[in-house]
Design goal:
Elements: E1 2-5, H1 18-29, E2 34-37, H2 39-45, E3 54-57, H3 61-68, E4 72-75, E5 81-86, E6 89-95, H4 120-126, E7 134-137, E8 142-145, H5 149-155, E9 157-158, H6 164-170, H7 173-185, E10 188-189, H8 191-196, H9 199-202, H10 210-222, H11 226-235, H12 239-242, H13 252-266, H14 273-280, H15 282-294, H16 299-314, H17 322-339, H18 346-350, H19 355-367, H20 376-384, H21 388-414, H22 422-425, H23 436-440, H24 474-477
Parallel strand pairs: 3-6, 9-10
Antiparallel strand pairs: 1-8, 2-3, 2-7, 4-5, 5-6, 7-8
Helix pairs in contact: 7-10, 7-11, 14-17, 15-16, 16-17, 17-19, 19-20
The chain binds adenosine-5'-triphosphate (ATP) and magnesium ion (MG).
């Protein structure tokens, strides 16, 4: 172990928020050892802006609770942790951990339950990468480096502590972390890791809880280097573990959306990680829509069913939370509303809660060469910057164009020259994008329901009616993924 002068490694207390200093100081005053550890130390050394700061101490969670009283909450099952509220911020305070006991690992060697307190040396050995295992005591201006981690920082090298095979077997999520840190920090991956990073190894991710994989996918999407990590997911065989049935190919649309996400993060704009799921699953959604329409299901119903199907399938890998699922389906539904809006509804649509996301999605499609948007991305783009008069003129011109093309279609299909002028009858009211009933109760999706509402059936054979799924619906024939929860690896806070 070497003790480094923190100021020589580019660290100083001036870079630290008062919340983490408060936690370190309070624990030290109470007679405990306390350090900043992990990504915060690493990122500061690299001149990056740390996402957060984690603390580690020799005080047990209940001792931490004694120090901070009502400002502290003990959380976690597999890993018991203390959450300390300091001002508006929350600091995670972990206790030094010893190696897990054999009795609580699964047959495959995966750690299931793990509250075995230990020394700082033991705690160090359990961390993943050397660069994540430096202990910074800001008041002493010291960094404890047990493994020449600072050299790896300087060499921009990602090195796992211990035997890489064992470390991946213990927690397969470390494979995702490898790619995330390599992409985020632009570090090279140690050849010892590359040697064992095989498709067989990535298969271990099958046993990781889909909740944890969703969390990890969010971290990949929001780290600011999504564009860089996407091809790596394919190269290392992680893609097919994370995304059910999504063709492993970086389409122009995916590439543009990934770059766009990174840019937004760079300039401090908010991003909704579910948006990128909407992008990834878009082709599957469309294919599924076509499938239902091919069976004679009306378009709106086909979209509703396709959305449910595609998300359900993806949930076998990453469980997307309900609110994110609703967001994704709304973005998809917005596509058809924005593609051929009823003229009376244009203004209302442009102030709809989901307009921005739907429009961004449409524009990304258009800019990545999707001609099926009929130029409506650019149309809406221009529309938003118009004065009221210009908007009126734009709507009239759109209306004329629309009537013309509808007439053409009607002429060619039926020979009937009378085209209904919807603009006289349609209301300005916008129907909900996703039916409440579908989004509120996940169970209702798979339960047959006899009280079906107004459905339009073109084919007697189809089993699909309105939001209900009957027993012979294709979804119900899918193999259910049964998971033995005793074998599932839970995340640190689950
Ligand atoms: P960032 O917060 O920038 O994503 P981080 O390194 O801080 O990166 P966290 O997930 O916040 O990552 O974890 C904090 C620290 O806990 C890590 O730096 C590492 O030392 C340790 N750690 C986290 N996950 C694992 C894991 N799966 N295996 C071993 N150690 C881990
Ligand atoms: Mg962190």
């Amino acid at each position: 172990m070497q003790t480094l002068r923190a100021s020589k490694c580019g660290l100083s207390t001036a870079q630290l928020p008062s919340s983490i200093l408060d936690v370190i100081d309070s624990l030290t005053k109470a007679g405990y050892e306390a350090y900043i550890v992990g990504g915060g130390v690493r990122d500061l050394m690299l001149g990056l802006n740390p996402k957060d700061f984690d603390a580690v101490t020799n005080a047990t969670p209940s001792q931490v609770k004694e120090v901070f009283g009502r400002r502290c909450r003990i959380i976690g099952r597999r890993f018991e942790l203390a959450h300390v509220y300091s001002g508006r911020e929350l600091i995670e305070v972990a206790t030094f951990r010893a190696p897990p006991k054999k009795a609580i690992t699964s047959a495959q060697g995966m750690i299931l339950r793990d509250n075995n307190w230990g020394t700082i040396e033991q705690d160090f050995a359990r961390r993943d990468f050397s660069i994540n295992a430096m202990y910074y005591q800001p008041r002493k201006d010291e960094v404890l480096d047990f493994c020449h981690a600072y050299d790896d920082i300087k060499d921009k090298k990602l090195r796992l502590l211990g035997d890489p095979t064992l470390r991946f077997e213990e927690d397969p999520v470390r494979m995702l972390r490898t790619l995330r840190f390599a992409a985020k920090l632009n570090f090279s991956i140690d050849p010892e890791i590359l040697k064992i990073f095989t498709p067989e190894m990535t298969n271990l991710l099958r046993d990781v809880s889909p909740h944890r994989l969703y969390d990890e996918s969010q971290k990949l999407f929001t780290m600011g280097h999504l564009h860089r990590v996407m091809p790596m997911l394919i190269e290392f065989g992680i893609w097919k573990q994370l995304f059910a049935d999504i063709t492993p190919e970086i389409t122009q649309f995916i590439e543009r959306a990934a770059k766009n996400t990174d840019q937004r993060i760079q300039i401090g704009k908010t991003i909704n990680p579910a948006f990128f799921y909407a992008v990834l699953l878009w082709n599957n959604f469309q294919a599924r829509c076509e499938f239902y329409q091919g069976k004679g299901v009306v378009a709106a119903e086909a979209r509703a069913q396709a959305g449910l199907d595609v998300l359900k399938r993806q949930a076998t890998r990453t469980i997307i939370p309900r609110f994110a699922e609703t967001f994704i389906r709304e973005v998809w539904e917005m596509q058809s509303r924005l593609l051929s809006p009823k003229p009376q509804q244009i203004e209302a649509l442009s102030s709809h809660a989901r307009f921005r996301a739907g429009f961004d999605f449409l524009l990304l499609r258009e800019k990545s060469g999707d001609t099926t948007t009929n130029g409506m991305g650019a149309w809406w783009d221009a529309y938003q910057n118009m004065s009221t008069d210009e908007k009126e003129r734009a709507i009239s011109s759109y209306n004329r164009q629309r009537a013309k093309s509808r007439k053409k279609v009607a002429d060619s299909v039926t020979g009937d020259k009378a085209v209904v002028d919807e603009s006289k009858s349609a209301s300005t009211h916008i129907e909900p994008l996703v039916k409440e009933q579908e989004s509120r109760n996940r169970r209702s999706r798979s339960k047959p329901n006899s009280s079906a509402s107004s459905g339009d059936f073109r084919s007697a054979k189809t089993t699909v009616n309105t939001g209900e799924i009957t027993a012979d619906h294709p979804i119900t024939k899918r193999r259910r993924v049964q998971r033995d929860l005793t074998k599932v690896i839970f995340g640190p806070t689950q």
